[in-house]
Design a protein that fits this description.
This protein is of the alpha/beta class and 297 residues long. The chain contains twelve helices and 13 strands.
Length: 297
């Protein structure tokens, strides 16, 4: 199921309308802090080039405190922005209309500019869901999510679409699950929160493990996760392959890679920002793989 793009206006309740059509010479950018290691600009540029659009995609270092001023400074040449964490949450009160999905998850990773107004979307859920289905994970039955931040919230929304409405969330401390608890409530889900000292027992019999931890953070738990024989989805894409996914691959587990997630979520961003339905996901994925090889030296 595609993400729900119905809008809830944060200032006045308004209806939705379709994104603008493609225009030559528009500007886009990927925002974050720091943003230099993000693969997103590589995929955006590959898509624009393959689509024959004479658009630019820059990278802009932007912290939360500077986001409002940056949005106000952009002129009509800008078509949209892609946002990295933690800007996904802080942008919500700064834009005119936000999809219900972005509000439920608690983050918009895409801002589209149209007719003097700003529109916020979440394409992370679409990316996670499509990557899982592409790998053959359609009905895992149960799931364990590692981490409780913004990425975990998007994972919860994707799991709901796969029929998993009571997943387990594992965090270092219970207080780190506040975002996940809030998102689960908005999504109509119930989550069972535990700390990592219980991970071995929590993994028993689960169908899917989704790691939303930073690069390297799941390495300590790789043996236990692989031993569970569950399908494994590691959302890390800037340092691929991770130790966890390498171990899972050798063990014969179903492995869902972070680059697939990124390719599909960026493809949805490009659709929204350009207004064009056909986006070259294969070319984007190849560009991302080539960049990872380049970075590896």
């Amino acid at each position: 199921m595609r993400a729900n793009h119905r809008f809830t206006d944060l200032r006045t309740v308004m209806g939705s309308s379709e994104p603008h059509g493609g225009r030559v010479g528009r500007r886009t950018a990927v925002l974050g802090y720091p943003v230099d290691r993000s693969l997103s600009p590589v995929l955006h540029r590959a898509a624009l080039k393959a689509m024959g659009l004479n658009w630019s995609c820059n990278t802009i270092d932007c912290e939360e405190t500077g986001l409002a001023g940056l949005l106000d400074s952009l002129d009509d040449s800008w078509a949209g922005l892609a946002l990295c964490t933690p800007l996904k949450r802080s942008v919500l009160p700064l834009i005119d209309e936000v999809t219900d999905l972005a509000l439920d998850v608690g983050g918009a990773n895409t801002v589209v500019f149209r007719d003097g107004r700003t529109y916020g979307h979440n394409t992370d859920v679409h990316g996670i869901l499509t990557a899982l289905r592409e790998a053959g994970v359609h009905a895992p039955g149960s799931a364990v999510v590692l981490g409780g931040g913004t990425a975990a919230c998007s994972a919860l929304a994707a799991l709901r679409e796969l029929g998993v409405t009571e997943p387990t969330v594992v965090v270092r401390e219970h207080g780190r699950a506040a975002e996940a608890h809030a998102a689960a409530g908005r999504l109509g889900m119930a989550i069972d929160v535990h700390t990592f000292d219980r991970l071995d027992r929590l993994l028993h019999g689960t169908g899917l493990v989704v790691s939303t931890l930073p690069a390297g953070a799941a390495d300590t738990y790789a043996a236990a996760i692989v031993h569970s024989r569950a399908a494994i989805f590691d959302v890390v894409c800037s340092a691929w392959p991770t130790r966890l996914t390498k171990a899972a691959g050798f063990a014969g587990s179903t492995v869902v890679d972070g680059l697939s997630l990124l390719a599909h979520q960026v493809a949805d961003q490009v659709r929204l920002i350009t207004g064009q339905a056909e986006v070259p996901v294969r070319a984007m994925r190849e560009a991302g793989q080539a960049e990872l090889v380049r970075r590896a030296g």
